[in-house]
């Protein structure tokens, strides 16, 4: 099928192992889709910057801006132009910070900001009451954003390496709808100190009966001494024990406990 499209000049060879759409076909596709965007509830804007987009008012439900590396900054008022947004994907952008206007996306269900190598913190998101998925994989974010405890509908949290010292007691109990929690960092494990979950946080996490998948690093094997029912309840888990960086491949389909130093079992915890 690809070769047929190339023979018809609808696709062109572009570098090694890459194809691109012919400019005429691309322009026609964009104009065709925009002519009926009200019917399908989406709009395509190509070749303009984020500042120009923010001047327009859209009722779209999905905004996909991933892999836009040249953009290092999002205009402060940008997200005010998308009040009906439900899916926002900014993965792979060169953006260093997110504006506080992201907190205005009251209908947002999914916020995906993977591969943000320059992003160190998130703005307050406490008003995103409908958020069900927050994916911040491969970023430099190390602390939970303000208002995180208000996200009671959150089902999936992918936010590796968190500073648990700043997490208040009872925080994880407020995430009563959580189904998948991933706080294991595999991409930047050598770039910053490891954050370890203590007994109190683990008790709160493991007591969530809605939880099906758990990927975390714990401080000591002693936290396993109390209640083991979570092991049979979870469908999949990967738990690293100890503060030594390990490079065991994270397989999210397994049930696995990885021990980095045997001496932590000197008191017979196992």
What's this model, at a glance?
The chain has 270 residues and is an alpha/beta fold. The chain has helices spanning 2-7, 23-35, 37-40, 50-54, 171-174, 199-206, 229-233; strands at 11-13, 19-21, 62-64, 87-89, 110-112, 133-135, 156-158, 180-182, 213-218, 236-241, 255-259. It is globular.
Strand order of the largest sheet: 3-4-5-6-7-8-9-10-11
Beta-strand portion reads 15-25%
Helix content, binned percent? 10-25%
Counting DSSP H or I runs of 4 or more residues, the number of helices is: 7
Characterize the main sheet: 9 strands, parallel
Question: SSE order, as H and E?
Answer: HEEHHHEEEEEHEHEHEE
Total DSSP E strands: 11
Apparent shape: globular
Distance between the termini: 57 Å
Query: What structural class do helix, strand and pairing data support?
Result: alpha/beta
Low-confidence stretches: none
C-alpha Rg, in Å? 22 Å
């Amino acid at each position: 099928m690809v070769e047929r499209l190339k023979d018809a000049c609808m696709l062109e060879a572009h570098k090694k192992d890459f194809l691109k759409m012919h400019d005429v076909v691309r322009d026609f596709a964009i104009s065709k889709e925009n002519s009926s965007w009200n019917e399908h509830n989406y709009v395509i804007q190509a070749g303009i910057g984020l500042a120009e987009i923010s001047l327009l008012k859209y009722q779209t439900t999905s905004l996909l801006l991933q892999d836009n590396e040249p953009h290092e900054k999002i205009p402060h008022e940008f997200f005010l132009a998308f009040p009906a947004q439900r899916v926002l994907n900014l993965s792979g952008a060169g953006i260093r910070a997110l504006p506080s206007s992201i907190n205005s996306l009251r209908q947002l269900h999914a916020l995906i900001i993977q591969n943000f190598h320059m992003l160190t913190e998130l703005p307050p998101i406490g008003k995103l009451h409908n958020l069900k998925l927050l994916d911040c994989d491969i970023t430099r974010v190390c602390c939970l954003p303000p208002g995180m405890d208000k996200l009671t509908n959150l089902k999936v949290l992918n936010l590796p390496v968190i500073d648990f010292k700043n997490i208040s007691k009872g925080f994880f109990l407020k995430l009563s709808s959580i189904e998948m929690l991933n706080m294991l960092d595999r991409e930047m494990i050598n770039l910053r100190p490891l954050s370890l979950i203590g007994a109190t946080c683990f008790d709160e996490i493991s007591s969530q009966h809605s939880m099906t998948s758990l990927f975390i690093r714990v401080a000591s094997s002693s936290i396993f001494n109390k209640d083991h029912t979570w092991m049979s309840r979870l469908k999949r888990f990967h738990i690293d024990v100890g503060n030594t960086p390990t490079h065991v491949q994270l397989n999210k389909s397994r049930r696995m406990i990885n021990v980095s130093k045997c001496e932590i079992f000197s008191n017979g915890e196992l």
